[in-house]
Amino acid sequence: MPRSVHRLLAGLVAAAIVVAADAAWAGNDPALDAGLGHLEHRWAHIKYQVTDSDAQYQDYKALAAEAAALVRRYPTAAGPLIWNGIIVSSEAGVAGAFDALGLAGDARDMFVAAGKIDDRALHGAVPTSLGSLYYLVPGFPLGFGDDDKARRFLEQGVAIDPDGLDSNYFYGDFLARQGEYAKARGVLTRALAAPLHPDRPVWDAGRRREIRGLLARVDRKLAAGG
Prior knowledge:
By secondary structure, the protein is mainly alpha-helical. The chain has a domain at 3-160: Serine Threonine Protein Phosphatase 5, Tetratricopeptide repeat, CATH 1.25.40. The protein has helices at 3-9, 30-49, 53-73, 78-94, 97-117, 121-136, 147-160, 165-177, 181-192, 201-223. Helix 3 (53-73) runs antiparallel to helix 4 (78-94). The protein is globular, with a radius of gyration of 16 Å.
């Protein structure tokens, strides 16, 4: 796989992710809620606080096994499938070139399965996660990427969670990659206006740094007449 393609896949480390955390795991089973909370906090630590990519890969792989076990315990719940997909998509971002696309496909299948259970679960995690995969994964013949599908899913995610940190971040990132800088700026500004999440500080601070960095790049493009 060309190095440039693998660099693109590395964006999957950011994909999907704490769309799910926006939802605060609203369930009726304390054990399920605790399991989802554990996955989210461990994911945030690995993404934002583990700096070595080899260590990240091993940590994601171990966490994906925990998520799969939670899926087996709760086969009719969308949340474990969503988090399994989130973790596996992150694993794809730091995996070797020959494994990355396979892991991304596995993550997509998990999101699709979760959507069949509840396509609005966890504040629109399913469409936003699918949308992020469709624009970050290369298109045919290398992968399943599709910008038209990405736009449709990302817009569904924003419709479900119009003021969400992640729903607006991924839509804004997609728009910026499409060269729609003015629209991206408005979406990213709305993302930064999302309420703080003091119970999930690692993710909240990390995602906002990403949004500010992206917004700065968008502003440079606009200043240059983009």
